[in-house]
Amino acid sequence: MKFTHFAPLALGFATVALAGCSDTGDEAAAPVADEVMLEVTNARLMLPAVSDRPGAIYFDVENTGDRNYAIRRADVEGAGSAELHGSMEMNGQMMMDSVGQVLVNAGESENFAPGGFHVMVFDVDPALEAGGTTDMTLTVVGGKQKTFPVEIRAAGDER
């Protein structure tokens, strides 16, 4: 009988046995390496003035990490769909359209504000009422996600 056939099996058992002895005391204290290092502040959903029209979300996002993030999608709890949009002036007229992604460089911020980038929110659930909150999940290129609370405001409130 040759022991060379049993060596990989013995190595596998030894690895499992040693893993059981490892110290796992401070796992919760260690930062998560895959965490999306974006911080959202001042997030507010402006409800549509007319039902069956889209609302808009404005917010400030800061990249607190050391790598760039491209936001490629936004999902809003209580909405049928949401799209990243940008506003631009063309021939003296303001226009808006969906954008594929919004880059937030490491250590920098981006403002999602009226007249600029924003999230258009379609098929807003009537249960979303001014004074409440909902959640928005941003997805970055690569598929990682981070969820933030969003204040809900009436159409005539300060944007």
Work out the helix count.
Answer: 1
Order of helical and strand elements: HEEEEEEEEEE
User: Overall pLDDT, averaged?
Assistant: 85
Main beta sheet, described? 10 strands, mixed
Radius of gyration: 23 Å
* C-alpha end-to-end distance: 79 Å
Number of strands: 10
User: What percentage of the residues does DSSP assign to strands (E)?
Assistant: over 45%
Q: Uncertain segments of ≥5 residues (pLDDT<50)? A: 1-23
List keywords for this structure.
159 residues, 47% strand
Summarize the structure in words.
With 159 residues, the protein is mostly beta strands. It is built from one helix and ten strands, in the order H-E-E-E-E-E-E-E-E-E-E. Strands 1, 2, 3, 4, 5, 6, 7, 8, 9 and 10 form a ten-stranded mixed beta sheet that branches. The longest helix has 15 residues, at 7-21. The protein is globular, with a radius of gyration of 23 Å. The N and C termini lie far apart (79 Å). Residues 1-23 have low confidence and may be disordered.
Layout of helices and strands, plus pairs?
Blueprint: H1 7-21, E1 38-46, E2 55-63, E3 69-76, E4 79-90, E5 93-98, E6 102-104, E7 109-112, E8 118-124, E9 133-140, E10 145-153
Parallel strand pairs: 1-10
Antiparallel strand pairs: 1-2, 2-7, 2-8, 3-6, 3-9, 4-5, 4-8, 9-10
Give a short synopsis of this structure:
By secondary structure, the chain is mostly beta strands. It has one helix spanning 7-21, and strands spanning 38-46, 55-63, 69-76, 79-90, 93-98, 102-104, 109-112, 118-124, 133-140, 145-153.
